[in-house]
Amino acid sequence: MLIVAFLMFLMVIWIKVPDLVRERMWGELAAFAGILLLAMVLTVAKILRLPVPNPEHALRAVFEPVTDFIFTKVLH
Question: In which element (H, E) is residue 39 found?
Fold first, then answer.
């Protein structure tokens, strides 16, 4: 299963990267590489049945103080 996942990632790279390089879209290439790397790490972790953190906890930690401030100070 791990080999299949890597082949799929290689296929995506093979399709997308040459166009980004040809058009000199360096920012988009960097963003693509970062997101693809994150996707690869999460995919390998799931295949190997490693614990993957829930992104809800990070989002809650960021937005809960903001919403508390808005509802207690601004809208009250």
Answer: helix 26-47
